[in-house]
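hiii, so i know i said id send this last week but things got crazy w the move. better late than never?? heres the sequnce for the chain we talked about at the cafe, plus the structure i predicted for it. fair warning i was half asleep when i ran it
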Amino acid sequence: MKVGTFRFDGFDWDSSNFFHCQLHGVTISEIEEFFTQDLLYFEDERHSLDEKRWIAVGLNRKERYIFVAYTIRRKGSEILIRSISARYCHKKEIKIYEEIKEKIFKERS
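okay and structure toks below
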């Protein structure tokens, strides 16, 4: 698990993931803004069958915790984030996120 930001050039949206990512109330603009800040992220090995999948957890502008499953796609020279699913975190997930984040920041000090 890592905490940080990463470089990318944009997002890979189509009708399928555009609709699916909004099913749980998280907007497209929230998802795009979400990826501009420090996030806790890790590989989703359980669901990485055809391509590597990742999970990111962090806060949106309204300080609500968001969980996003995504892949990284290359189109030409561009690196694009393709969101697969997004939702607001449950209380138990928030507690785990805070504990992990605190541990990572202590290790950095």
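btw The chain has three helices and six strands. thought thatd interest u
miss u guys!!
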